[in-house]
Write a structure and sequence with these properties.
membrane, transmembrane, transmembrane helix, mainly alpha
Amino acid sequence: MDILKMLGFVFVALGLALELPKILRDYREDRNLENFLELFGRIFMILAAIILAIGVFV
């Protein structure tokens, strides 16, 4: 069961990472606080999902 949880977190991280280039492109076009917070939050969620996947697996 723990492997399924780990795979779930890995897939969440991959899904979030696939949308990262679009968010980065939006931030580069219009550098404002809203786009920065969206980019920062997305990166933070990706890192959190990876850490949770490692924590569940170990």
